[in-house]
Hints:
By secondary structure, the protein is α+β, with helices and mostly antiparallel strands. The protein folds into two domains: 2-84; 98-155 and 170-202, GMP Synthetase, Chain A, domain 3 (2-Layer Sandwich), CATH 3.30.300. 63% of the residues lie in helices and 12% in strands. It has helices spanning 2-24, 29-46, 48-53, 58-115, 149-153, 172-191, and strands at 117-126, 138-147, 198-202. Mean pLDDT is 74; it is low at 151-170.
Amino acid sequence: xxxxxxxxxxxxxxxxxxxxxxxxxxxxxxxxxxxxxxxxxxxxxxxxxxxxxxxxxxxxxxxxxxxxxxxxxxxxxxxxxxxxxxxxxxxxxxxxxxxxxxxxxxxxxxxxxxxxxxxxxxxxxxxxxxxxxxxxxxxxxxxxxxxxxxxxxxxxxxxxxxxxxxxxxxxxxxxxxxxxxxxxxxxxxxxxxxxxxxxxxxxxxx
Length: 206
């Protein structure tokens, strides 16, 4: 009998407390959340006799309700943050891709006329992920160039006397190195960026 009296008393006290809280809270989204929590707690109090029969801890259930709400909130925030990161990454990739296309276009004709080269690929190393500024946030521009195929195919080989000069051996690596340096200087001037930020690699033979 004492258990029933205690149970009814708890319900009445909790209802009175809920009414007071409802009157004190302003009409906001927080009030809706508080009402939902109060309703769940009241339901647990009303079911406490049944829960005690099955030896269920009411306090533990209340803690689980709060923990579940926090976990769901954190999960939603993590998903939103992940989607935000993915969108920013795709936007950044698109911006860099368009920059590369425009930079190729700006120098294509003159690069071909002066050096007989075509830009095969441009890759960027950037200093930060958001609000990209050019050229301040560009750490390095890697440029791969190749000799023009048409220019090479137009050259008809002819038989010439072979003269071997051992004092000055031909070194293709040195040729490519000088060509890469000259091309780097040219690109730095055209793109208005420090030459130290440009790395040129020549592919193929000339």
